[in-house]
Amino acid sequence: MPAVTMEKHKDGDFFVDYEDKVFEDVKAEEGQKALVTFHTVAFEGSIGLVNILNAIRLNRKGYETSILLYGPGVTLGIQRGFPTLGDAAFPGHQNFADNLKKFMSEGGKVYACRFALQALYGHGEPSLLEGIIPIAPQDVLDLKLIHVRDNAVIVDTWTV
After folding, report:
1. How far apart are CA 135 and CA 64, in angstroms?
2. Mean pLDDT, range 96-111, rounded to an integer
3. pTM metric for this prediction
4. Domains, the chain
5. Which of 1, 14, 44, 113 has the fewest Cβ atoms within 10 angstroms?
6. How far apart are CA 2 and CA 18, in angstroms?
């Protein structure tokens, strides 16, 4: 067996040059919009959290940013907790709620499909985090079409 002669890595060590940015830092032009859609289940992968963080970043870059929760995506926007609502049963348990609240507090809009909320996941509008706007299932397509018409940046998140 070859001997490993390198020192062990320590907290604070760098593995990559995280300061070397290759592309320009794009900012929104006046009136530009962005839409981030979620058709993904809470806690089934990292994409839900990653694209909420992307929506926050788009908003901070000046885009008028909206999030659409539809299908299983509505599970990102419901209140949760244990033993009571709002409690974190484990580290990261409230990541979705905390970041959606941050996004909305910075001016972002979040929409949730009423059909998915009730028919698919057995929740009512009172289950949604404060500030999330419930919409009719027909509005899901129209919200996307409005953003396409307005040449918005659209990030679709779809997992199965």
Report:
1. 19
2. 98
3. 0.90
4. 33-158 (3.40.1260.10)
5. 1
6. 31
